[in-house]
Amino acid sequence: MKKSISNDLIDLQGYICLELEKLDGLGHFKQDDWIREEGGGGRTNTILNGKIIEKGGVAFSEVYGNVTPEMKNQLGIDGSSFFATGLSIVLHPKSPHIPIIHMNIRFFEFDNKNYWFGGGIDLTPHYVIPYNAAIFHNDLKNICDTYSLEFYQKFKSWADDYFFNAHRCETRGIGGIFFDHLSHKSTLLPKETLFEFCMELGKAFPKIYKKQVELGKNIEISEINRTWQQLRRGRYVEFNLVHDRGTKFGLISGGRTESILLSMPPTANWVYGYQAFENSAEQETLDWLRKDVDWLSFMNN
Amino acid sequence: MKKSISNDLIDLQGYICLELEKLDGLGHFKQDDWIREEGGGGRTNTILNGKIIEKGGVAFSEVYGNVTPEMKNQLGIDGSSFFATGLSIVLHPKSPHIPIIHMNIRFFEFDNKNYWFGGGIDLTPHYVIPYNAAIFHNDLKNICDTYSLEFYQKFKSWADDYFFNAHRCETRGIGGIFFDHLSHKSTLLPKETLFEFCMELGKAFPKIYKKQVELGKNIEISEINRTWQQLRRGRYVEFNLVHDRGTKFGLISGGRTESILLSMPPTANWVYGYQAFENSAEQETLDWLRKDVDWLSFMNN
Predict the structure, then answer these.
(1) In the structure, what pLDDT confidence band is assigned to residue B74 with cuts at 50, 70 and 90?
(2) What is the CATH number of domain B2-298?
(3) Which residues of A touch B168 (CB under 8 A)?
(4) A123, A124, A160, A126: which is closest to A140 by C-alpha?
(5) Nearest CA of chain B to the CA of A296: how many Å?
(6) Residue B92: in which H helix or E strand, if any?
(7) How far is CA A181 from each of CA A88, A139, A178, A211, rounded to the nearest angstrom?
(8) Any chain A CB within 8 A of the CB of B88?
(9) Rg (CA), chain A
(10) Is B240 helix (H, G, I), strand (E, B) or coil?
(11) What does the alpha-carbon distance between residue A261 and residue B172 come to, in Å, rounded to a whole number?
(12) What residue in A sits closest to B274 (Cα-Cα)?
């Protein structure tokens, strides 16, 4: 089955890139295939200077080999050889009124037949608007509910905890869903159903993002909006390099640096002691960047 | 003695800021005093949009309190309360032909009377020019040699190892000197002499940087120079957030985030799979970013 998961993910990559090109209307993905010396390889598709997307990556990989001590440590596994395949997306839009979005689907399998799925979708608006956040969370909840009525709440909290920029005491954005170690053992759902869930998320991704693009793309952009976007991109860099376990593990364990750091924004700024004005949209956004907000409650606002 | 070390460091901060203002000719430092709830505080001086310096910080701190488990872990100490004072500098120049510079002096003391000094100065040119690197290393060697003929070589290698951006397989810049855990026990030099060494480095800092500024400030800046500078700033961010032990420790242990991240450049860019042109100045720089280069050997070139 692992080969068919890989194949479905690479097809999904193609589908998503096509849909994102349609959504963008200008940019095109450039394909970069690479081989991993120790086994496997990947296809990293990047888009640059589109009409909507300033810099984005949709990266597929399939790697296998011996379990290293770092993997044992970080992943807590006891197999001796592994197979891992995944699809990762990060899109940095041009407009500060369109959110940054991230998606990941990953599958691990070991020679002792243990396996798990992980992944999720989360949103990082430069400006948090509760109604838009509700739309996003509602889209995710609808998919989750088809598979288990427990998924959404559990995975939503997991995202709140995972995407937390602890040294700033703020969440990266408005979260979304994050899950890991999903298997028959942990969910009582068959492997095929769990993969279906991941694939459904992947297929829904372009539609989910399209809604967020539509909500923001016609909003006028001021100078302060642009400054703020650069600062928020700086926070995105901080989260990914300081806290994100996937990024840290990848970089330390000798993963492919260019593909891992595909998530970096095209540009980012840092200002010492930046203070948002009282009651400004920037301050409002900061006030929203916390865990456990029930975004769905803003659906009718 | 610890209080007099603090006092000397805060005087040194004042002296360095004054000298840097003279060197810059336009920018002025803004003083930001802060208090640490658990004990101590600091003075963070920042300069923005000068003629030479685009963004820079000269930060003094004096903190004390109980030794936390994180400190025990990271610093390998067995005292129960600590005193730490230090001065940190990072300057990001406007011109890509002037290097980024970093300096640090730090002093730790514990209730069991154990103490140590640490610190160093290192240089991160956007474009590596061996002769300029030789001037810099020669300045450092001259100071080191006054105190011990072993210092320069030992501390130079230490800097090569410390300022290594492992996931990029390149050094951050051309290194300099880095030292830690200097005490009477480890060096056979009296505590006063070790502090004198640190202070002499600090006093020499503005002169050392002035030479590097003079070497680069009249070189014309092309569009590719500017692009390259932004990418090198991106690497500086990567080193500081992924590898720098001081930054990581500070952020994880609840240090003052704004002061720790003073080292961030004003702006930075990331490009997927950037390739420097063959035989270009950019490629030449990449070729120099390795450990164990004997920069002093370029003194007469």
Answers:
(1) confident
(2) 3.40.1500.10
(3) 257
(4) A123
(5) 32
(6) strand B81-93
(7) 17, 23, 11, 30
(8) no
(9) 19
(10) helix
(11) 17
(12) A258
Q: What is the pLDDT of residue A168?
A: 97
Residues of A with active-site annotation: 102
Interchain CB distance below 8 Å, B264 and A252: no
Whether chain A has a CB inside 8 Å of the CB on B265: the answer is yes
Residue with tokens 């790697």: A63
Report d(CA A202, CA A9) in Å as an integer: 9
Query: CB–CB of B85/B64 below 8 Å?
Result: no
Low-confidence ranges of chain A (pLDDT < 50): none
Q: Amino acid identity of B99? A: P
Q: Do B6 and B108 form a contact (C-beta atoms < 8 A)?
A: no
- By the 10 Å C-beta count (0-12 exposed, 13-18 middle, 19+ buried), B5 is classed as buried
Nearest CA in chain B to A46: B272
Give the integer Cα–Cα distance in Å for A243 and A4: 32
CA A193, distance to chain mean position in Å, is 21
Which structure tokens are listed for A93?
């839009």
Contacts of B49 in chain A (CB under 8 A): none
Summarize pLDDT for A112-151 with one digit per residue, the tens. Answer: 889 999 999 999 999 999 999 999 999 999 999 999 999 9
Contacts of B70 in chain A (CB under 8 A): none
Instruction: Verify whether the Cβ–Cβ distance B270 to A264 is below 8 Å.
Output: yes
